[in-house]
Amino acid sequence: MNLYSANSLKVELNQRGCRLTPQRETILSVFQNLQQGNHLSAEELYRTLQNQGERIGLSTVYRTLHLLARIGILRELELAEGHKHYELNLPELHHHHHLVCIQCHKTFEFSDESILKIGKKQVEKAGVELLDCQLTVRAVCLEALREGWPSLVPSNWLCPRYHSEIDEEIS
User: Fold this and answer.
1) pTM score, two decimals?
2) Of 29, 33, 74, 170, which has the fewest CB atoms closer than 10 Å, so is most exposed?
3) Distances in Å between the alpha carbon of 114 and those of 72, 77, 119, 120, 152?
4) Is residue 66 domain-shared with residue 144, that is, in the same domain?
5) Do residues 68 and 35 both lie within one domain?
6) CATH number, domain with residue 47
7) For the chain, how long is the longest CA-to-CA vector?
8) Closest of 58, 59, 80, 65 to residue 24, by C-alpha
9) CB-CB contact of 49 with 61 (8 Å)
10) How many other CB atoms are there within 10 angstroms of residue 69's CB atom?
11) Which residues form the domain of 101?
12) What's the domain count of the chain?
């Protein structure tokens, strides 16, 4: 899904007083080729770039992610792992929210137009421009509750539901 071409990204950045660097273009291409529903942390993006043979430093990755999220090209997500994740911000094509298990970190995406409607109404009232509208619901999966969450779940516990889905994706 190639929604931001090099030219459209250049225009977007120039309008905000920034320039398109080869590193920014490379980082955006990783997100454009990311399977829908996947989110990357800065460290995961850095490892992906290294595996692709790119020589982009971790500090450049962090700065680029921050910039692209600030101007609305990427969505910055606060998921359960305690660090930020990112995905392309495509509200017109795939507006969604996240439900996250705080124990096993399984993330479910869901859509609800009423949330966007409320966000747009508030933006209009405040007289500002909407860059993103997202809701993150934090929950605990039934598997963790069955294990006795929170006190009885061992620190090294792996959710069978979440990890069996990962195994299926890998095979």
Assistant:
1) 0.68
2) 170
3) 21, 20, 9, 10, 38
4) no
5) yes
6) 1.10.10.10
7) 54
8) 65
9) yes
10) 19
11) 95-171
12) 2
